[in-house]
Amino acid sequence: MPDIAPSSQPEGDLRYRRVILKLSGESLAESGKRGISDNELLAIAKQIKSAHESGCQIAIVNGGGNILRGASFSGANASVQEATAHYMGMLATVINSLALQDALDSIGLQTRVMSALPVDRVAEQFIRRRAIRHLEKGRVIILSGGIGSPFVTTDTAAAQRALEIEADVILKATRVDGVYSDDPEKNPHAVLYEQLSYNEVIQKKLRVMDATAIALCNEHRKPILVFNFKQDGNIVRAVRGESVGTWIGDPQDTQTNHR
Ligand code: UDP
């Protein structure tokens, strides 16, 4: 018998028993601003608490874009090598994780920060079995440092960790209602998709997650739910499998699994 139980059937009205919640760095900042806002931190922490209280195991993968993204930073700073800039971006995710951890702790959640980059004073090393144990013990885990290697984004980390910890779904939190045919902030005729297959995302060149992440999810049939976290209660709705956002997955699963 394996000593690590795979994610089993959820109970009650809970649709997903174990999720990866992908939070971009910008979700911790005020709209249009950089850095970290206490209001945004607490607002998202409260939503995470409600989702956790519904019985869902939550692993958060943090971004760092509110502080620094490697590709754009190295583009603007020629003296910094691109690989170095990506490591700086990974460190930015650690900064965000520490802030989020304290916000979650302050409202009574048990948390652990784990990092793919060694930062032993502030975070545990990411060890798959240990991460699963934390979840089983009711802790919210915050997975920082991406995958610990440059030239990818935390979207890839979200897909990678979802596979490793056998999360049922990747909940990709965004500021818009889901995936649109075009940028809804620029094109008033942009259409919101209710569901998409991985191939549609690739063929239509929809900017959902980076290409590596989509390829991993496609290969392993890991569903992604893109939804608007700014609407209060949406994280709980997402873990319950209520109809929020855009569901991306295997078309075979679409009818039975989402709607
Ligand atoms: N990054 C990296 N490897 C990883 C994850 C992240 O090099 O495994 C770097 C990359 O430069 C990225 C930055 O960290 O741009 C911050 O992450 P991301 O852009 O995904 O943040 P988000 O857009 O989600 O806020």
TrEMBL record:
Key words, A-Z: ATP-binding, Cytoplasm, Kinase, Nucleotide-binding, Pyrimidine biosynthesis, Transferase
Binding site for UMP: G64, I147, G148, S149, P150, F151, V152, T153, T154
Boundaries of every Aspartate/glutamate/uridylate kinase domain copy: 18-228
InterPro entries the record matches: AceGlu_kinase-like_sf, Asp/Glu/Uridylate_kinase, Uridylate_kinase, Uridylate_kinase_bac
EC numbers for this chain: 2.7.4.22
Binding site for ATP: K22, L23, S24, G25, G65, R69, T174, Y180, D183
Lineage top rank: taxon: Bacteria
GO CC, one annotated term: cytoplasm
Main location: cytoplasm
Gene Ontology biological process: 'de novo' CTP biosynthetic process; UDP biosynthetic process
Catalytic activity field: UMP + ATP = UDP + ADP
A molecular function GO annotation: ATP binding
First-level EC class: transferase
Activity-regulation annotation: Inhibited by UTP.
Pathway: Pyrimidine metabolism; CTP biosynthesis via de novo pathway; UDP from UMP (UMPK route): step 1/1
Compartments where found: Cytoplasm
Family: Belongs to the UMP kinase family.
Function description: Catalyzes the reversible phosphorylation of UMP to UDP.
PANTHER family: URIDYLATE KINASE (PTHR42833), URIDYLATE KINASE PUMPKIN, CHLOROPLASTIC (PTHR42833:SF4)
Quaternary assembly: Homohexamer.
Name assigned to this protein: Uridylate kinase
